[in-house]
Amino acid sequence: MQRHGGPPPMLVQLSDPHIVAPGRRLLDRVDTPSLLAQAVTSVAALQPQPAAVVLTGDLVDRGTAEEYDHLRSLLAPLPGPVWLMPGNHDDAAVMREVFADHDELQPVGGDPALAGHVLWVRQTAGLRVVALDTVVPRASHGQLCPARLGWLARTLADEPDTPTVLAMHHPPFTTGIGHMDAIGLRAGVPELAALLQRHPQVERVICGHLHRPITRRFGGTLAMTVPSTAHQIVLDLAPDAPPAWRLEPPGYAVHAWLDGALVSHVVALGDHGPVGLY
Ligand SMILES: [Fe+2]
Ligand SMILES: [Fe+2]
Q1: pLDDT digits over 72-89, tens only?
Q2: For residue 229, which ligand has an atom nearest its CA?
Q3: What is the pLDDT of residue 80?
Q4: Locate the Calcineurin-like phosphoesterase domain: which residues (predicted)?
Q5: How many Å lie between the centroid of ligand 1 and the Cα of residue 88?
Q6: Which of 36, 73, 148, 177 has the fewest Cβ atoms within 10 angstroms?
Q7: What CATH superfamily is the domain 10-268?
């Protein structure tokens, strides 16, 4: 994908909105719907407009139809295509019912072992976006089973020359935040690293789950997590760090294709006062 003097094609990544039913608050005090609405307003005002928006999991908190209905109304103002994938707080079956018009959520054919997983490939402005489901039903940690790794291997082999972004909920690396690493990706990580080494077209692995921005080299490419649009996990690298969160500024990522590479920006949401000019 080349740039021809115009603005770079942009992919927006929103993550971990943890939407609750109308009138409720998460953890007794986080107004996750209002925080997602703030993110949606910010994305809708971006110039240029993004080519697509991808949500990397934990879309709602309890996986109920009421929560997904609420999410649907909150996402409605977003421009262009919006692509969804589950995290450990989601229920893929309920998500598929409420978002029945989202083609990317349709089960992939072939291997019956893949039917319960959300796996998709979308293309926008020459950039290929591949969603790899890391969810273990009714568990907080993630894994990559042989069936999912096989699907990814076939998918990447289909277009070895197209710049690709791989989206996953659980990041494929240890972060140093112990209570989150305890519910990290437990199986399939070395296999994924070896697969990505063979596919240098993968420009970035974009993840959620950690509720804060973290980057690491992985499998010959760069893997990163992004802030939640709601609450953030406290940065504490002590081995016995308690499972703590707080309302640090929420945010999202803008991945722009620029001069033959993917440039990833993290945007902090909130009222930061007027813009100044140098
Ligand atoms: Fe989350
Ligand atoms: Fe998660």
Answers
A1: 999 999 988 999 999 999
A2: 1
A3: 85
A4: 12-213
A5: 8
A6: 73
A7: Metallo-dependent phosphatases (3.60.21.10)
